Amino acid sequence: MSVYTPVAEGQLAAWLKGYSVGALSALEPIESGIENTNYFVTTGQGRYVLTLFERLAAAEIPFYLDLMAHLARHGVPCPAPVANHADRFLSELNGKPAALVTRLPGRSLERTGTAECAELGALLARMHVAGQSYAGYLENPRGPRWQRGAARELQPFLDAGQRRLLEDELAAQAGHRYPDLPRGPVHADLFRDNALFEGEASGARLCGVIDFYFAGVDCLLYDLAVCANDWCLVDPAADPRLDAPRVGALLGAYHAQRPLSPAEAGAWPMLLRAAALRFWISRLHDFHLPRSGELVRVHDPEHFRAIVESRAAAAAAPPWLSPEAS
Predict the structure, then answer these.
(1) Does residue 326 lie in a domain region?
(2) Could you give the CA distance from residue 148 to residue 154 in angstroms, rounded to a whole number?
(3) 262 belongs to a structural domain
(4) 109 belongs to a structural domain
(5) 74-115, pLDDT tens digit by residue?
(6) 44: which residues sit within 8 A by CB, 6+ positions away?
(7) pTM of the model
(8) Which domain holds residue 31?
(9) Please, what sign has the CA dihedral across residues 8, 82, 218, 259?
(10) What is the pLDDT of residues 190-208, one digit of tens each?
(11) I need a labelling partner for 326 at 20 to 30 A (CA). Which of 71, 225, 255, 267 fits?
Protein backbone atom coordinates (compact mmCIF):
# COMPACT_ATOMS: atom_id res chain seq x y z
CA MET A 1 0.00 0.00 0.00
CA SER A 2 2.65 2.49 -1.05
CA VAL A 3 1.86 5.71 -2.92
CA TYR A 4 2.73 5.47 -6.60
CA THR A 5 -0.01 7.74 -7.97
CA PRO A 6 -0.49 11.11 -6.23
CA VAL A 7 -4.08 12.27 -5.74
CA ALA A 8 -4.85 15.92 -5.00
CA GLU A 9 -7.71 16.89 -2.72
CA GLY A 10 -9.44 18.68 -5.56
CA GLN A 11 -9.28 15.61 -7.80
CA LEU A 12 -10.69 13.41 -5.08
CA ALA A 13 -13.42 15.88 -4.12
CA ALA A 14 -14.66 15.90 -7.71
CA TRP A 15 -14.46 12.08 -7.93
CA LEU A 16 -16.42 11.64 -4.70
CA LYS A 17 -19.38 13.47 -6.22
CA GLY A 18 -20.10 10.16 -7.93
CA TYR A 19 -20.72 8.57 -4.51
CA SER A 20 -23.24 9.17 -1.72
CA VAL A 21 -20.60 9.56 0.99
CA GLY A 22 -20.65 13.29 1.64
CA ALA A 23 -18.01 15.95 1.03
CA LEU A 24 -14.30 15.33 1.49
CA SER A 25 -12.87 16.58 4.78
CA ALA A 26 -9.47 14.81 4.98
CA LEU A 27 -7.08 12.87 2.74
CA GLU A 28 -4.04 11.00 4.10
CA PRO A 29 -1.61 8.77 2.16
CA ILE A 30 -0.96 5.28 3.56
CA GLU A 31 2.74 4.44 3.57
CA SER A 32 2.65 0.77 4.60
CA GLY A 33 2.52 -2.03 2.04
CA ILE A 34 4.03 -2.30 -1.41
CA GLU A 35 1.47 -3.08 -4.11
CA ASN A 36 -1.20 -0.39 -4.66
CA THR A 37 -1.69 3.29 -3.91
CA ASN A 38 -3.87 3.81 -0.84
CA TYR A 39 -5.26 6.79 1.04
CA PHE A 40 -7.35 7.23 4.15
CA VAL A 41 -10.38 9.31 3.19
CA THR A 42 -12.66 11.09 5.65
CA THR A 43 -15.95 12.61 4.50
CA GLY A 44 -18.95 14.12 6.18
CA GLN A 45 -20.53 10.66 6.41
CA GLY A 46 -17.69 8.35 7.41
CA ARG A 47 -14.16 7.03 7.06
CA TYR A 48 -12.98 5.10 4.01
CA VAL A 49 -9.94 3.74 2.22
CA LEU A 50 -9.30 4.73 -1.38
CA THR A 51 -7.29 2.27 -3.48
CA LEU A 52 -5.78 2.98 -6.89
CA PHE A 53 -4.75 -0.30 -8.50
CA GLU A 54 -1.27 -0.07 -9.93
CA ARG A 55 -0.71 -3.54 -11.40
CA LEU A 56 -3.99 -5.41 -11.49
CA ALA A 57 -5.90 -5.55 -14.77
CA ALA A 58 -9.33 -3.95 -14.56
CA ALA A 59 -10.87 -7.29 -15.54
CA GLU A 60 -9.39 -8.99 -12.44
CA ILE A 61 -10.33 -6.40 -9.84
CA PRO A 62 -14.05 -7.32 -9.56
CA PHE A 63 -12.98 -10.69 -8.11
CA TYR A 64 -11.48 -8.93 -5.10
CA LEU A 65 -14.18 -6.32 -4.60
CA ASP A 66 -17.02 -8.81 -5.02
CA LEU A 67 -15.27 -11.22 -2.63
CA MET A 68 -15.05 -8.53 0.06
CA ALA A 69 -18.70 -7.63 -0.48
CA HIS A 70 -19.66 -11.32 -0.25
CA LEU A 71 -17.69 -11.89 2.96
CA ALA A 72 -19.04 -8.70 4.56
CA ARG A 73 -22.62 -9.84 3.82
CA HIS A 74 -21.80 -13.11 5.59
CA GLY A 75 -20.63 -11.38 8.75
CA VAL A 76 -16.87 -11.51 8.16
CA PRO A 77 -15.33 -8.26 9.46
CA CYS A 78 -13.64 -6.97 6.32
CA PRO A 79 -13.83 -3.75 4.29
CA ALA A 80 -17.06 -3.40 2.33
CA PRO A 81 -16.76 -1.83 -1.13
CA VAL A 82 -18.89 1.27 -1.70
CA ALA A 83 -20.91 1.46 -4.91
CA ASN A 84 -21.06 4.70 -6.87
CA HIS A 85 -24.17 6.27 -8.41
CA ALA A 86 -23.85 3.88 -11.35
CA ASP A 87 -24.02 0.96 -8.85
CA ARG A 88 -20.42 -0.05 -9.56
CA PHE A 89 -17.66 -0.78 -7.07
CA LEU A 90 -14.91 -0.03 -9.61
CA SER A 91 -14.32 3.39 -11.13
CA GLU A 92 -11.33 5.36 -12.46
CA LEU A 93 -9.30 8.11 -10.83
CA ASN A 94 -6.19 9.82 -12.15
CA GLY A 95 -5.95 7.27 -14.97
CA LYS A 96 -6.04 4.23 -12.65
CA PRO A 97 -8.79 1.78 -11.68
CA ALA A 98 -10.00 2.90 -8.27
CA ALA A 99 -12.31 1.74 -5.50
CA LEU A 100 -13.60 3.08 -2.20
CA VAL A 101 -14.12 0.71 0.75
CA THR A 102 -15.15 1.21 4.35
CA ARG A 103 -12.36 1.80 6.86
CA LEU A 104 -12.36 -0.62 9.78
CA PRO A 105 -11.46 0.39 13.34
CA GLY A 106 -8.50 -1.05 15.22
CA ARG A 107 -4.76 -1.39 14.81
CA SER A 108 -2.30 -4.10 13.86
CA LEU A 109 -0.09 -5.80 16.46
CA GLU A 110 3.66 -6.28 16.18
CA ARG A 111 3.69 -9.23 18.60
CA THR A 112 1.06 -11.95 18.71
CA GLY A 113 0.56 -14.61 21.38
CA THR A 114 -1.57 -17.73 21.59
CA ALA A 115 -4.78 -15.78 22.25
CA GLU A 116 -4.36 -13.66 19.11
CA CYS A 117 -3.42 -16.70 17.03
CA ALA A 118 -6.55 -18.52 18.24
CA GLU A 119 -8.71 -15.54 17.28
CA LEU A 120 -7.11 -15.50 13.85
CA GLY A 121 -7.69 -19.24 13.35
CA ALA A 122 -11.36 -18.93 14.23
CA LEU A 123 -11.88 -15.93 11.94
CA LEU A 124 -10.00 -17.55 9.08
CA ALA A 125 -12.21 -20.64 9.35
CA ARG A 126 -15.33 -18.45 9.23
CA MET A 127 -13.93 -16.68 6.19
CA HIS A 128 -13.20 -19.94 4.39
CA VAL A 129 -16.64 -21.37 5.15
CA ALA A 130 -18.33 -18.18 3.92
CA GLY A 131 -16.15 -18.19 0.81
CA GLN A 132 -17.45 -21.56 -0.32
CA SER A 133 -20.61 -19.89 -1.65
CA TYR A 134 -18.69 -17.22 -3.57
CA ALA A 135 -19.06 -17.79 -7.31
CA GLY A 136 -16.06 -15.77 -8.52
CA TYR A 137 -12.87 -17.51 -9.60
CA LEU A 138 -9.29 -16.31 -9.91
CA GLU A 139 -6.32 -18.61 -9.53
CA ASN A 140 -3.83 -17.55 -6.86
CA PRO A 141 -2.05 -14.66 -8.65
CA ARG A 142 1.24 -15.39 -6.86
CA GLY A 143 1.04 -19.14 -7.35
CA PRO A 144 3.51 -21.49 -9.10
CA ARG A 145 3.24 -19.90 -12.57
CA TRP A 146 4.08 -16.41 -11.27
CA GLN A 147 6.86 -17.79 -9.07
CA ARG A 148 8.59 -19.54 -11.97
CA GLY A 149 8.46 -16.40 -14.09
CA ALA A 150 9.72 -14.19 -11.28
CA ALA A 151 12.53 -16.66 -10.53
CA ARG A 152 13.75 -16.38 -14.13
CA GLU A 153 13.81 -12.58 -13.89
CA LEU A 154 15.77 -12.75 -10.64
CA GLN A 155 18.56 -15.02 -11.85
CA PRO A 156 21.04 -12.21 -12.70
CA PHE A 157 20.75 -10.75 -9.20
CA LEU A 158 21.23 -13.88 -7.09
CA ASP A 159 24.38 -15.43 -5.71
CA ALA A 160 25.11 -19.14 -6.04
CA GLY A 161 23.57 -20.02 -2.68
CA GLN A 162 20.36 -18.13 -3.39
CA ARG A 163 20.03 -19.68 -6.84
CA ARG A 164 20.54 -23.18 -5.44
CA LEU A 165 17.98 -22.70 -2.68
CA LEU A 166 15.47 -21.18 -5.09
CA GLU A 167 15.89 -23.99 -7.62
CA ASP A 168 15.63 -26.67 -4.94
CA GLU A 169 12.43 -25.23 -3.49
CA LEU A 170 10.78 -24.70 -6.87
CA ALA A 171 11.59 -28.32 -7.74
CA ALA A 172 10.20 -29.54 -4.41
CA GLN A 173 6.98 -27.62 -4.91
CA ALA A 174 6.59 -28.91 -8.48
CA GLY A 175 6.19 -32.40 -7.06
CA HIS A 176 3.54 -31.41 -4.49
CA ARG A 177 0.47 -29.76 -6.01
CA TYR A 178 -2.24 -31.36 -3.77
CA PRO A 179 -5.18 -31.05 -6.20
CA ASP A 180 -7.50 -32.99 -3.87
CA LEU A 181 -7.20 -30.71 -0.84
CA PRO A 182 -10.19 -28.45 -0.03
CA ARG A 183 -9.97 -25.29 -2.12
CA GLY A 184 -11.68 -21.94 -2.24
CA PRO A 185 -10.99 -18.22 -1.99
CA VAL A 186 -8.00 -17.47 0.25
CA HIS A 187 -6.69 -14.15 1.50
CA ALA A 188 -3.10 -15.28 0.79
CA ASP A 189 -1.49 -12.27 2.53
CA LEU A 190 -2.90 -12.28 6.05
CA PHE A 191 0.17 -11.03 7.87
CA ARG A 192 -0.10 -9.23 11.20
CA ASP A 193 -0.32 -5.84 9.47
CA ASN A 194 -3.47 -6.97 7.65
CA ALA A 195 -5.36 -7.82 10.85
CA LEU A 196 -6.85 -5.16 13.12
CA PHE A 197 -7.35 -5.44 16.87
CA GLU A 198 -9.22 -3.32 19.40
CA GLY A 199 -8.66 -3.10 23.15
CA GLU A 200 -5.68 -3.22 25.45
CA ALA A 201 -2.64 -5.29 24.49
CA SER A 202 -3.39 -7.88 27.19
CA GLY A 203 -6.95 -8.39 25.96
CA ALA A 204 -7.06 -7.17 22.38
CA ARG A 205 -9.88 -8.49 20.20
CA LEU A 206 -9.53 -9.23 16.49
CA CYS A 207 -12.02 -6.93 14.79
CA GLY A 208 -11.14 -7.01 11.12
CA VAL A 209 -9.10 -8.29 8.18
CA ILE A 210 -7.97 -5.96 5.40
CA ASP A 211 -6.10 -5.88 2.06
CA PHE A 212 -7.58 -8.71 -0.03
CA TYR A 213 -5.73 -7.73 -3.19
CA PHE A 214 -3.55 -10.87 -3.31
CA ALA A 215 -6.56 -13.15 -2.83
CA GLY A 216 -7.29 -16.03 -5.16
CA VAL A 217 -8.48 -19.60 -5.24
CA ASP A 218 -6.05 -22.09 -3.71
CA CYS A 219 -5.83 -24.76 -1.02
CA LEU A 220 -7.51 -23.42 2.10
CA LEU A 221 -4.62 -24.81 4.13
CA TYR A 222 -2.28 -22.48 2.23
CA ASP A 223 -3.92 -19.52 4.00
CA LEU A 224 -3.12 -21.08 7.37
CA ALA A 225 0.48 -21.65 6.29
CA VAL A 226 0.87 -18.00 5.26
CA CYS A 227 -0.43 -16.94 8.67
CA ALA A 228 1.76 -19.37 10.63
CA ASN A 229 4.90 -18.14 8.87
CA ASP A 230 4.23 -14.61 10.14
CA TRP A 231 2.15 -14.92 13.31
CA CYS A 232 3.76 -17.96 14.92
CA LEU A 233 7.54 -17.45 14.79
CA VAL A 234 9.65 -18.05 17.88
CA ASP A 235 11.15 -14.58 17.31
CA PRO A 236 10.29 -12.63 14.13
CA ALA A 237 13.54 -10.68 14.44
CA ALA A 238 15.95 -13.51 15.20
CA ASP A 239 14.47 -17.04 15.12
CA PRO A 240 12.36 -18.21 12.13
CA ARG A 241 11.31 -21.51 13.71
CA LEU A 242 7.64 -22.06 14.46
CA ASP A 243 6.46 -21.68 18.04
CA ALA A 244 4.42 -24.80 18.84
CA PRO A 245 1.90 -23.22 21.27
CA ARG A 246 1.00 -20.45 18.86
CA VAL A 247 0.71 -22.81 15.89
CA GLY A 248 -1.41 -25.12 18.03
CA ALA A 249 -3.69 -22.22 18.98
CA LEU A 250 -4.04 -21.12 15.34
CA LEU A 251 -4.81 -24.59 14.01
CA GLY A 252 -6.90 -25.69 16.97
CA ALA A 253 -9.27 -22.72 16.74
CA TYR A 254 -9.52 -23.17 12.98
CA HIS A 255 -10.12 -26.93 13.27
CA ALA A 256 -12.98 -26.33 15.74
CA GLN A 257 -14.94 -24.49 13.02
CA ARG A 258 -13.70 -26.17 9.83
CA PRO A 259 -12.19 -29.56 10.69
CA LEU A 260 -8.89 -30.25 8.95
CA SER A 261 -8.68 -33.58 7.13
CA PRO A 262 -5.89 -36.17 7.44
CA ALA A 263 -4.81 -35.22 3.90
CA GLU A 264 -4.44 -31.59 4.97
CA ALA A 265 -2.46 -32.63 8.01
CA GLY A 266 -0.05 -34.58 5.82
CA ALA A 267 0.34 -31.64 3.42
CA TRP A 268 1.08 -29.10 6.16
CA PRO A 269 4.92 -29.21 6.00
CA MET A 270 5.03 -28.67 2.23
CA LEU A 271 2.45 -25.90 2.31
CA LEU A 272 4.48 -24.11 4.95
CA ARG A 273 7.40 -24.29 2.52
CA ALA A 274 5.19 -23.14 -0.37
CA ALA A 275 3.98 -20.11 1.58
CA ALA A 276 7.53 -19.21 2.65
CA LEU A 277 8.82 -19.56 -0.91
CA ARG A 278 6.10 -17.32 -2.34
CA PHE A 279 7.04 -14.43 -0.03
CA TRP A 280 10.78 -14.91 -0.43
CA ILE A 281 10.42 -14.65 -4.21
CA SER A 282 8.11 -11.63 -4.04
CA ARG A 283 10.44 -9.80 -1.65
CA LEU A 284 13.45 -10.60 -3.81
CA HIS A 285 11.51 -9.28 -6.80
CA ASP A 286 10.51 -6.05 -5.05
CA PHE A 287 14.07 -5.57 -3.77
CA HIS A 288 15.92 -6.14 -7.05
CA LEU A 289 13.26 -4.92 -9.50
CA PRO A 290 11.55 -2.07 -7.61
CA ARG A 291 8.94 0.30 -8.95
CA SER A 292 9.15 4.05 -8.52
CA GLY A 293 6.71 5.84 -6.24
CA GLU A 294 6.41 8.72 -3.81
CA LEU A 295 6.31 6.49 -0.72
CA VAL A 296 7.57 2.98 -1.42
CA ARG A 297 8.13 0.33 1.23
CA VAL A 298 10.38 -2.63 0.38
CA HIS A 299 10.76 -5.55 2.78
CA ASP A 300 14.07 -7.31 3.45
CA PRO A 301 14.06 -10.61 1.50
CA GLU A 302 16.58 -12.21 3.90
CA HIS A 303 13.85 -12.58 6.52
CA PHE A 304 11.95 -14.99 4.30
CA ARG A 305 15.07 -16.70 3.05
CA ALA A 306 15.65 -17.76 6.67
CA ILE A 307 12.04 -18.98 6.92
CA VAL A 308 12.38 -20.98 3.69
CA GLU A 309 15.52 -22.66 4.99
CA SER A 310 13.89 -23.37 8.35
CA ARG A 311 10.78 -24.93 6.79
CA ALA A 312 12.85 -27.03 4.38
CA ALA A 313 14.84 -28.40 7.32
CA ALA A 314 11.69 -29.33 9.27
CA ALA A 315 10.32 -31.92 6.89
CA ALA A 316 8.06 -33.90 9.24
CA ALA A 317 4.50 -33.00 10.24
CA PRO A 318 4.56 -31.56 13.78
CA PRO A 319 2.77 -33.47 16.55
CA TRP A 320 0.06 -30.83 16.96
CA LEU A 321 -1.10 -31.51 13.37
CA SER A 322 -0.37 -35.11 12.41
CA PRO A 323 -2.64 -37.34 10.26
CA GLU A 324 -3.14 -39.64 13.26
CA ALA A 325 -4.14 -36.74 15.52
CA SER A 326 -6.69 -35.44 13.04
Answers:
(1) no
(2) 10
(3) yes
(4) no
(5) 999 999 999 999 999 999 999 999 999 999 999 999 999 999
(6) 21, 22, 23, 25
(7) 0.93
(8) 9-102
(9) positive
(10) 999 999 999 876 678 999 9
(11) 71
